[in-house]
Fold this protein.
Amino acid sequence: MSFVVRVLQSWPRMMAGPVVARFPPIIHHLQVAQDLPLPLAQCSTLLKTWMASDDGGRVLVHDLIRLEVKRLLQQYQSYTGTDLLAATQSLLLLAIVLLFGSNNTPAVSPSEGAHILVEMWEVKHRLANTGMFLKEEIDHILPTWEDWAIVSAKRRTILALHHIEWVWSLLQGYPILTCFELAPLPAPAAGYLWSEMDEVSWKRHYGDWLAQWKGGGYKMGELFNIKHGESLDARSEMWLAEVDEYGMLLMSEINAVSCVE
């Protein structure tokens, strides 16, 4: 579990870091190809301020982050499409700061943390209702690059919200929420597809991926069925061989869940 917490804590720093092209693995580069969507731009500014502040100044920055979280929770219903996705991603990154803080010191009380997570459930459901699958994915054919990138980012964002809920619940001694409703979702895609910068190359690689996964892509339900200490089946091994750091995080969480159980 400590590994999962540490990885999650790194995401706000990635968003605030000096390397512009380095984003947390829930944000696809096509989302920010022109400019940062407004919710992510505001999030980035707050996180840069948070990183630059000393211990005394962080109390004030945490208050500013609280206000932004409150604003997003009040206004998310006015967002649609990619703006809703960006707002949800912003909420997620800011919530990581509040719930896990720095040096394992949360910036909010357990009751306030629980309230934030409960309200974020509604945001997550609204995002999920915008569509979690593409018809082309169901038909196992080539989708458009942009549509695939956005739906993949949605799925990664929703899975990340479950990461936060799971880790925070364990740390607080609360019952762990199940996420078996996510079982039909495609698992995070191959790292080479997610990170590809050129559309022509992406189409070629996606065609190769379709040929490799003739029986259909790997599903979250298959990942959930992995048992701690047992050998992986062929499909799980094939998926693990092609994932990026986000897929590795999921695998570590599966192992942690098995150990807890």
